[in-house]
């Protein structure tokens, strides 16, 4: 959309993609990462030859969208043992096996004690062990923008 005269223009983007990008940008603070992007973005980047290492952050329903979005961030080149424990923890978390997920998170945290994503999942697992969600499909529903 273009608004204005010959001398003054204002450009804007609208639509579902822009809405999702705005939601992901605002979730960076929540996840404590500098950058978030969707599965669709990552697949497009790979088709263009991107070989960057990425880290799965979450599978979530963002505010305003019914379908879940798989969310990634750029990897900070952690140790392979950490990456493996983290991946296994997320797999167990999605399956609803929160006790086993906690074991893998503890392994990951023994290698990187202050990792914000591991701490987030640790809190989620402990919460779900105390009070399991009524219908778990492996996807978090995020309420904030």
Shape: globular
Cα distance spanning the termini: 24 Å
Judged by helices, strands and strand pairing, the structural class is alpha+beta
SSE arrangement, N to C: EEHEHEEHHHE
Q: Report strand order across the widest sheet.
A: 3-5-4-6
- In what range is the share of β-strand residues? 15-25%
Tally of contiguous helical segments: 5
Give the assembly state of these chains. Answer: single chain
Mean pLDDT: 88
Global Rg: 18 Å
Pick out the low-confidence regions.
Answer: none
Measured as a percent range, the helix fraction is 40-55%
The main β sheet shows up as: 4 strands, mixed
How many domains?
1
Summarize the structure in words.
It is built from 5 helices and 6 strands. The protein has helices at residues 16-31, 39-47, 80-95, 98-111, 116-130; strands at residues 2-4, 9-11, 37-38, 54-61, 69-74, 140-141. It has a 4-stranded mixed beta sheet. A two-stranded antiparallel ribbon has the order 1-2. The mean pLDDT is 88.
